Amino acid sequence: MELGRDIEVATIVTESSYHEAVMVDQVLEALEPDRGGVYLDGTVGGGGHAAALLEASADARLLGIDRDDEALAAARARLAPFGDRVQLERGDYAEASELFDLGEGALAGVLLDLGVSSRQVDSSERGFSFRPDTPLDMRMSGEGPSAADLLNTLEAEELAAIFRDYGEQRRAGQLAREVVARRERAPFGRSDDLLAAMEAVYRKPVRATDAAPVFQALRIAVNRELESLERALPTLRDRLAPGGRMVVLAYHSLEDRRVKRAFREWSRDCICPPELPECRCRGRALGRELVKRPLRPSTEEVARNPRARSARLRAWERGE
Questions:
Q1: pLDDT at 6
Q2: 267 with 208, same domain?
Q3: What total of structural domains would you count in the chain?
Q4: Which GO BP terms, alphabetically (predicted)?
Q5: Which of 160, 191, 223 is a domain's end point?
Q6: Which of 125, 138, 183 is nearest to 196 (CA)?
Q7: Which of 143, 156, 210, 221 sits in a 20 to 30 Å window from 89, CA-based?
Q8: Distance of alpha carbon 34 from its chain centroid, rounded?
Q9: Same domain, yes or no, for 129 and 219?
């Protein structure tokens, strides 16, 4: 099977007041919900992908999880017509096995739609954007340290690592030192505070292309997004039944790189270091990649929903 060609899945309306689901046809083609069984939507959001999956197959059941209470409320309302075919829980998708008491081979499919939703970005009080005078919050769950807390408490070396590793900033050290110097005079609380620190370092007005990766870096650190992804991938792989599929939608290279590496390693017969004279690892592939290169949204979808433009879809199937 080669995904991404001759898609015949009926397009289901998945736009809501909360969020418009991305690449729905490709997701359904990869997951094949018409086979029935239990599917995990590890980032259920407003329920767009979940509704499409349940609509596509009367034999499919769905487990949905999200850290955001507002997202869960939207998903509950949207998925209410499907009754007891749906179970929703609040939490991190890396903890899905415990929350749903999933055993080995329990799932027919897994979907992880990473990143933030349109509603989270557009809600000024949530502090996910770099629009002027928004709070430096960025917490998906509303719990734990906020972005402001990190800026006001972490050592310069820790902040530099966040800006460098998660935002790929060449001036990460300079920006971290500027933050530490400024917080001695007044704590960081609003987006304008961080934008001013950036302007002092870059010595020019901060453009959206400058601000986006820095704010993204803080969001990833606040929510421990990459740690959750790395914990979840092997755990959820082992919850797939033979022939079960995992689909991941990533929106930046830091996420996509980890998914690509995992899927390719799982698809190799041998993962021993090349210097070993004989194979000492598992000696067999755990499954196969369904796409060699990530699928991208169509031109028509990007025109309708510009926020879909950075989406990259990868899919993997567990072996028999």
A1: 38
A2: no
A3: 2
A4: rRNA base methylation
A5: 223
A6: 183
A7: 221
A8: 25
A9: yes
Check residue 228 and report its DSSP letter.
H
* Domain-terminating residue out of 170, 189, 223: 223
Give the residue ranges of the annotated binding site.
47-49, 66, 93, 113, 120
Among 70, 61, 56, residue whose Cα is nearest residue 25: 56
Binding-site annotation, residues for S-adenosyl-L-methionine: 47-49, 66, 93, 113, 120
pLDDT tens-digit map of 256-268: 999 999 999 999 9
Q: How many CB atoms are closer than 10 A to CB 110? A: 26
Distance set, CA 298 to CA 44, 212, 316 (Å): 22, 24, 21
d(CA 135, CA 192): 9
Model confidence pLDDT, tens digit, residues 79-138? 999 999 999 999 999 999 999 999 999 999 999 999 775 555 545 565 566 678 899 998
Look up residue 260 and give its two tokens.
């690509």
Range of the domain at 147: 125-223
DSSP assignments along 165-213, one per residue: HTT--TTHHHHHHHHHHHHTTS---BHHHHHHHHHHHHTSPPPHHHHHH
Any idea how long the chain is?
320
Question: Which DSSP helix (H) or strand (E) runs through 149?
Answer: helix 147-153
196, with CB counted inside 10 A (0-12, 13-18, 19+), is middle
Tokens of 1: 């099977």
201, 238: one domain: no
Asked whether the whole model's pTM tops 0.70, one would answer yes
The pLDDT of residue 208 is 86
- One domain, residues 132 and 114: no
